[in-house]
Amino acid sequence: MSGTGPRTVTPRRPDRPRDQDLTAPVVDELCRLLPDWLPARRWYAGKGHGLHEVRPLLAEVVVPGTPALLQTVFRTDDGACYQLLVGAVPGPADTRPGVPADAVIGSFRTPDGRTLTLYEASFDSELLSAFLQRFVEARPCGALEYHHVPGAVIPAGLPARPLTGEQSNTSVAFGDRMMLKVLRRIMPGAGTELETLAALGRADDVPSAALLAWAQTAGRQGAQPATLCILQEFVPSRGDGWSIATAQAKTCIRGACPSLAPPDGFSGDAFALGQATAQVHRALAQQLGSRPLSGPEALELTDALMARLDDALAEVPDLTPYARGLHRAYRNLRDAVRHGNPLPIQRIHGDLHLGQALRTPDGWVLIDFEGEPGHPVEERRRPQPALRDVAAMLRSFDYAAHHALGDLLGTPPGGPAARGPRGTRLTRRAAAWALRGRRAFCAGYTAAGGQDPRTSPALLRAFEADKAVYEALYEARNRPQWLPIPLAAVRRLAHGSHPVG
User: Fold this and answer.
1) Which of 467, 401, 447 is nearest to 274 (CA)?
2) Beta carbons within 8 Å of 474's beta carbon, 6+ residues apart
3) Please, which residues bridge with residue 236 across strands?
4) Cβ–Cβ contacts within 10 Å for residue 76, how many?
5) pLDDT tens-digit map of 347-393
6) Distance in angstroms between the alpha carbons of the first and the last residue of the chain
7) Three-class SS of residue 241?
8) Which of 117, 310, 391, 410 sits between 20 and 30 A of 426, alpha carbons compared?
9) DSSP state, 43?
10) Distance separating alpha carbons of residues 425 and 236, to the nearest angstrom
11) pTM of the model
């Protein structure tokens, strides 16, 4: 659409009969169409398994009118629940600006003879701008509730634009003021990110986005409310940690910065990122509590690490030579905790890596506090050692270095180009860059009051090894050519090397 900016979607009164009559036929048609359309979505977790049937759990017209917007939740035949924002427009969906062809779910004829096209509405700027009014008013809508933080300023009518790059959810920016995260996989109970952002909002000067509002199910008949959407402050940035780190790593590996001695272009950023991580950990401990890991819990933790390793060994035979060393690392963690080395546990980020940090003019801001999407909500909410986040970030530095190396060599790690003289030289530079970043991150974490990771090598080694085993399983399933990256870390950690040199 050209010219004068977005049109205003004029809502009808929600009690108009046509709006009431819309829901049932739309839901019936979605039940027919979604088994074919849903598996192709990037946030659909059931890939590889046939989808034969969906069942509606919730459907409300949240923006009545033409077009209309329905907020829906469907259960798939594997028991998972997914949220869709569904636009319903008369005629073809290409009348809606910005809606791509693959967002169209399908068309059908309503009982009163109209033809409606249904589409995933995350790309419909006008409709989502109208949807924002629900959070401004914070009034219930059928089985849905909308809440905002007391005192939060939520301006209405801002232009909406979808943000790309997410895998598990969908985010929409409203101007440069707010961001709405539409959760796709819906779990019972308060969302982990909602709880975490609310806790961080009660703390002072924490490098995270401020929580503004949220949507949830009404929790009727004793059911737990489930978080559906989170509206938070939009964080303008010059990029995320992954893009900045890989660009800096590529420059350094080429030889444009000292190859063996600091500082390089990312050491200062890594130090500041360590500080931001420690500040977030401290705020979460203050607001949600912390306590020492008990002996039985240490045993349970070790058993879980070993069980994950055993599962990975069954699929990734390349891990077998390192199994003994990894089991030894896990036993060392258990023994360190049981013999007088207390290990504090608390709520943590749970899925920390360079891509979960934004570089602003004032420093780093951590984002996406959902935890590991593949883990159950109860596990994500469970107190964990803060060193698990640290270990995950250390692995991310390693991946950034190897990703940059692969771009320069034009080949995945371990390929012919990596084994030649030039490849060997660049591989050493990549390892040196990663090591400097890991050391700087740990130094920054300590300087901001976090437990010095370098003084707990047995604990850090075990958590980093667990992360590397997870990575090896992922790469074996999805990108076998990248398997050498985690295998190199597994080999190093199984042989007892200090995690940060």
Assistant:
1) 447
2) none
3) none
4) 21
5) 999 999 999 999 999 999 999 998 887 677 788 889 999 999 999 99
6) 57
7) helix
8) 391
9) T
10) 38
11) 0.88
